[in-house]
Amino acid sequence: MMQMPDRVEPPNPPLRDGPIAVRPFRPDDVDAVVAACQDPEIQRWIPLIPIPYTDADARRYVMMTLQAWHDGTSAEFAIVDATTDLLLGSIGLHLGPNPRRYAIGYWVAPAARRRGVAVRAVRLVSRWGFERLHMQRLSLWTLPGNVASQAVAEAAGFRFEGLARNWETDRDDQPIDAVVFGLTPEDLAEASQTGRDAGSSGEAGRRGADGPSAVATIAAVPRELHAAGTRAAPFVDLAAVAALRPGTMTRVTLADLDLLVVWTPDGILVTDDRCPHMSAPLSVGGLAGNVVACPLHEGQFNLCTGETVQMPTTGGLDADGRYHSPWSPTGALPKSEPPSKKLDARRLTRVNRLRYYPARIRDGRLEAQLPILPE
Ligand code: FES
Fold it and tell me: Which residues constitute the domain of residue 343?
């Protein structure tokens, strides 16, 4: 069986695609690493990053990446501007015990986002890993709410594979879930053929995470699921389309209406930012393709059909009034409970289909038909 290499040599010359290149870190990258890692989004989605993040942390990080090359445990690259060599981000292949257990991780500095940097870097490094390190599979684990990272993965050809419960721990050492994506050589080849690949231009396609060439369209949603009061309602301005990104969810609040604007692979749609189970905000849940995962009770919903994909752990009534028993993510039988009003409430809570606000794009703005809002 092929084992992890004793030592990994960085590609020479460095890999590059259009405006970016990837190369090993250098000590003079430390200041840029410190600056980037002050970003709350990087700190939010990468629990390993210390808070506060200091010069010493960055120096340790740069030294760790160089040591990892030497030890053959990891191939860690700085993502840099191909012209100026300034640091744009970081990307690493973590080499597992065999070529089916490699994983990728990345971050991009705030100033370098929305230019396709991450997608280009993921493709470059993935290809190099398949060709030079004989990888057979590449995994990505990301936190369920980190939809920007997930959109980068999908744009690069990765496929959503599921939710790994208690995969990680947060800064308080509490277990947290992770969303798992996988990439095989076939996925990468298919992405190249279907236009998800950047090719020589490196631009992200419609599903891209930060590609300026993404084309905004409105998703077709079932007419019968239009929200009450929207049929003859006026269109109301919600957001600039340029502020939205493929593969992300955005909460828009107007008066007492909390809306969820989602850019799915089928297009943009507008629904309520309320779980159809017990009203938790879906915007802080996870998005994988067309499916949103509620942050409470494990409920999952198909955003384009409005249907429940996975009932909440509490059980209850589905949209058609059929009863579903409680269930446990561990597979263990839920504890039996004595009769109580709480138990009755859970049993009789109906998980309805999602409701939609008809939307359109006019002059670069997203508009939706909303019921008349209170002054
Ligand atoms: S509130 Fe969303 S699954 Fe319970």
Answer: 223-369
